[in-house]
UniProtKB/TrEMBL annotation, chain A:
It comes from Parasphingorhabdus litoris. It comes from the Bacteria. This is DUF3604 domain-containing protein.
TrEMBL record, chain B:
It is an enzyme of class 5 (isomerase). InterPro entries: PPIase_dom_sf (IPR046357), PPIase_PpiC (IPR000297), PrsA_foldase (IPR050245), Trigger_fact/SurA_dom_sf (IPR027304). It comes from the Bacteria. This is Parvulin-like PPIase. The keyword Manganese does not apply. GO terms for molecular function: isomerase activity. Its EC number is 5.2.1.8.
Length: 636, 279
């Protein structure tokens, strides 16, 4: 039912697109009068880049890391102003302003630490508060553990938990979002993080268990209080609350993140309480969780080399350990997006509903009120703990100039040094407004990048052909005769055709190749295959291997300069699935790969005049992932 | 003891440990700063405190032998800290210094609060700070894009032909290749053009005159023929429409000034000698 609604919405949108296309071109080509600042809505849609995962001083874990910047500071950062890192240096966006943002502080104990640290408040008089801000590290740890433990267990600590603090700080958060919302220019959303954790039992239990975190983002009106993990650690209860809010006119979506450290919990094949999944579950989940954050500082959740052995690019942003532990994460089930897509198709066959038909975004999860997207300029995310190259393991300790005999702090070795400068949420919307951007997220016309501003369009249709590629009306025709990323293609026989169009980030590297990842079900089995569909430098796809030749682009590790004569500014192609079978459900998403560039750790090392850490990867290929298009077989 | 195990397993504990190491260093630093002597006093109260901590970890009270070990460790730590101080290690530690300075900085900031200004006061301040609210030069332009992937070596010839066509009256919208971004941009500053097209293209089009088609200009994406439609010169702002924005800026300015004054007051208490500076 849900899906049909979105299909209808897409049809509605393309009708609008058609009527506009009677003119020679789309409305975005109409120049504005001088001085006019707001662009007209574009039915062919513009791409906007944002960050929907930002923590400030109001998050308990940011405050203890010495973060003092506020939601207002976060919005200023997003608009291009400088803010201060807790280690004392200035943070500023490398690129230009963001188009949209949401501050997502932990709802659990929201604002409690700042209140404990403010003289005169009731909560500052608690013994726990005195310990938390004492000079005794043991006391600080003990006090902080009480809060950390209560968040983990979803417990309201008597005498500490104060709904008035949460309500006040939440109101201020909403007010900051409203204050900085500049329709047409800069969109902000009221939002928070729902920080639920599944505590696993036995060896390696405790916090290391399943991460069920979500960011809850409201379209416009915001509730009086956030529904956090202290209300319930079961995400299904969150969705029920969101359904109630929606009925009362407060629309929101929840965006899961870091499924890579969920210990198999995020996309598992039963409910929170171990019951079989049903169509009602699938509908409720999709109504509330249309998109998933696939990449951020704490790793990338696309797939794992052990799940996708035939994907040469699977080993990217893998954060091997469960949150803050030495336990390797499970890869067998429930952690990775590609596998969830496959399982979703299976469920659709089995229960008539697909709880995992989500689109994709990226974001940062910064805990210092400003995201570091750029490899050249990375400040990681947890304040004084990883604010210097040395503390994140990219530069040897103690001013040493060599890595000989150096043992890196295990925390840096297992966590901080494996994290990444990532990522962006990209949306295709008619204009830069709350309504347009939120609705784009609802219909999943979104994609994720690892911190680069690759432009990516992806359309599917049964009547597409290669001639469309050079048609100036291609985009409006694609909307009119097919669907964009995030949509469904309902068909009974014909193989779907796809148009992929990617353009490089002017400030990053040229493109190397464009791929389509196909996931499908086949007699109760799930399958996946990566097809290269467009190659740079005049290369052609080998039909046997479905791969482009290597374009030979290189990175000079002494100064991070890159090949200037390799790679493409844009790649555009039409592709029809050569292995299509009419009765098989399938999902198709695009992955765009840039030429390699230096990883942040290499930049850190070069600036410090030391060799890069030999244990770390020296270069990376920045990338973008589109939301999928689903082929849904219908009875002929 | 299960609580303790939980704490040790708990990740936030791990995260915070590193931060706490810094806190600990400061702590010991403060305590021993200025202490010159070579006497280490281990008070009975300190032994008790350490014993309790020890018991928390070990799960039993320390025996006489354990206590000796606790005292030995304490003494060793003291010696190391004092020797480090003697060597001046902390003096060079930028992190410690920065952290202390930052803490102080917050204390100083907390003292400054800005009142509500009168309209006249605000407008006077706005007059004195007009440049802060001025808009940079912005340009509106349309462009014809030519894709290097499509035209390869022939691209310059194709661009020259397109230029001739558009100059002799062909509708610009019918020329060139589809562009994934927009083909017309309204009133955007050079910084924004840099982000969208790269620095070379941005600086080139901000030198063009309005109203005529340019020779081909290169960007990160290929070649473009550009026509500047309008130039909005860098403009002064007027007070009334942006009063709210001015108020916010005024408050920030006041609080920055108050903080600066407090800082100056502290600095006045010191004699600053800069070695090697010209007399």
């Amino acid at each position: 039912m849900t899906r049909n609604l979105w299909t209808l919405a897409a049809v509605g949108a393309l009708v609008a697109g058609c009527s506009g296309s009677d003119d020679t071109t789309n409305p975005s080509d109409v120049a504005l009068a001088p001085g006019e600042t707001t662009e007209q809505p574009n039915p062919d849609r513009n791409v906007y880049f944002g960050d929907l995962h930002i923590h400030t001083r109001n998050s308990f874990d940011a405050y203890i890391f010495n973060v003092r910047t506020t939601p207002e500071d976060a919005y200023k950062f997003g608009m291009g102003e400088g803010i201060t890192h807790p280690s004392g240096y200035d943070l500023k966006l490398e690129g230009p302003a963001l188009d949209f943002m949401a501050v997502t502080d932990h709802a659990a104990y929201l604002g409690h630490l700042p209140a404990m640290d403010t003289e005169g408040t009731e909560i500052s008089k608690l013994e726990m508060a005195k310990d938390m801000f004492s000079a005794d590290p043991d006391k600080i740890i003990a006090a902080f553990q009480l809060i950390g433990g209560a968040v983990r267990d979803g417990r309201k600590m008597e005498g500490v938990y104060d709904p008035k603090i949460i309500s006040d700080v939440w109101k201020a958060t909403v007010a900051a979002a409203d204050k900085y919302y500049k329709p047409g220019k800069f969109t902000t959303f009221s939002a928070y993080e729902y920080t639920a954790t599944r505590v696993t039992q036995g060896e390696g239990g405790g916090f290391a268990g399943g991460n069920l975190h979500r960011n809850v983002v409201f379209r416009d009106a915001a509730p009086d209080m956030p529904f956090g993990t202290l209300e319930s650690s079961n995400p299904e209860d969150l969705w029920t609350w969101m359904d109630e809010q929606r009925a009362a006119g407060i629309d929101g979506i929840s965006i899961p993140h870091n499924s890579n450290v969920s210990d198999g919990e995020m996309f598992k094949l039963e409910t929170y309480n171990g019951q079989p999944l049903t169509k009602a579950y699938a509908d409720q989940r999709m109504r509330n969780e249309p998109i998933v954050e696939i990449t951020q500082v704490k790793g990338t959740s696309e797939t794992h080399p052990s799940l996708s052995p035939n994907d040469e690019w699977a080993d990217f942003g893998i954060y091997e350990y469960l949150l803050s532990s030495q336990i390797k994460s499970k890869t067998s089930s429930g952690d990775y997006v590609r596998q969830a897509y496959a399982n979703g198709l299976m469920l659709e066959d089995k229960i008539g509903g697909n709880p995992y038909q989500f689109g994709l975004i990226g974001s940062t999860d910064t805990h210092v009120a400003g995201g570091s997207f750029d490899e050249k300029n990375f400040w990681s995310k947890i304040g004084v703990v990883d604010g210097t190259p040395e503390s994140r393991g990219s530069v040897p300790p103690g001013g040493k100039k060599s890595w000989d005999g150096v043992t890196v702090d295990p925390r840096a070795a297992s966590w901080f040094s494996r994290w990444g400068a990532s990522g962006y949420a990209a949306v295709w919307a008619e204009e830069n407004s709350r309504e347009a951007i939120f609705d784009a997220m609802r219909r999943k016309e979104t994609y994720a990048t690892t911190g680069t501003r690759i432009k990516l369009r992806f359309f599917g249709g049964f009547d597409f052909d290669a001639a469309m590629l050079d048609d100036p009306e291609m985009v409006s025709k694609a909307y009119a005769n097919g669907v964009a990323m995030g949509g469904d293609l309902l068909g009974a026989g014909k193989a779907p055709g796809f148009i992929v169009w990617a353009m490089r980030d002017a400030m990053s590297a040229p493109l190397q190749r464009v791929q389509i990842v196909k996931v499908w079900t086949d007699g109760g089995k799930t399958n996946e295959k990566v097809f290269d569909v467009a190659c740079s430098d005049g290369g052609t796809v080998d039909p046997g291997t479905a791969r482009c030749p290597d374009n030979g682009a290189t990175v000079n590790l002494s100064d991070c300069s890159i090949s200037t004569d390799k790679g493409a500014p844009e790649l555009k192609t039409f592709w029809r699935d050569p292995e299509h079978k009419a009765g098989q459900r399938a999902s198709y998403y695009v992955r765009v790969l840039e030429n390699p560039v230096c990883r942040w750790s290499t930049w850190d090392a070069i600036r410090a005049g030391v060799p890069p850490n030999p244990a770390l990867q020296k270069t990376i290929q920045e990338r973008a992932w589109s939301s999928p298009i689903w082929y849904v077989p219908t009875k002929a | 003891m299960t609580n303790l195990k939980k704490i040790l397993r708990d990740p936030i504990a791990h995260f915070v440990l590193i931060g706490l190491a810094l806190v600990a260093i400061n702590h010991f630093w403060n305590r021993y700063e200025g202490e010159q002597g070579r006497t280490i006093t281990v008070s009975a109260a300190e032994i008790d405190r350490l014993s309790v901590l020890w018991a928390n970890t070990a799960g039993r009270l320390p025996t006489g032998e354990d206590k000796q070990q606790i005292i030995d460790q304490y003494v060793q730590q003291e010696v190391l800290v004092r020797e480090a101080e003697r060597l001046g290690l902390g003096d060079d530690d930028t992190i410690i210094k920065r952290r202390l300075a930052q803490k102080m900085d917050f204390l100083v900031s907390g003292e400054s609060t800005a009142d509500n200004p009168s309209d006249a006061e605000l407008e006077a301040w706005f007059d004195a700070n007009r440049d802060k609210f001025a808009a940079p030069e912005r340009r509106s332009f349309v462009h014809i894009y030519l894709s290097p992937e499509k035209h390869k070596n022939a691209i310059e010839k194709v661009a020259a032909d397109a230029l001739q066509n558009v100059q002799s009256g062909t509708d610009w919208k019918s020329l060139g290749d589809p562009f994934i971004q927009k083909r017309s941009y309204a009133a955007i500053p050079e910084s924004e053009v840099t982000r969208l097209f790269g620095p070379d293209f941005a600086s080139a089009i901000f030198k063009l005159p309005a109203g005529q088609w340019s020779a081909p200009i290169g960007s990160a994406f290929g070649l473009h023929l550009v026509r500047i439609e309008a130039i909005d010169d860098a403009a002064e702002a007027s007070f009334e429409p942006i009063k709210a924005e001015v108020t916010t800026a005024w408050q920030e300015d006041q609080s920055a000034k108050a903080k600066q004054a407090a800082l100056q007051e502290l600095v006045r208490g010191y004699d600053v000698v800069i070695e090697g500076a010209d007399e």
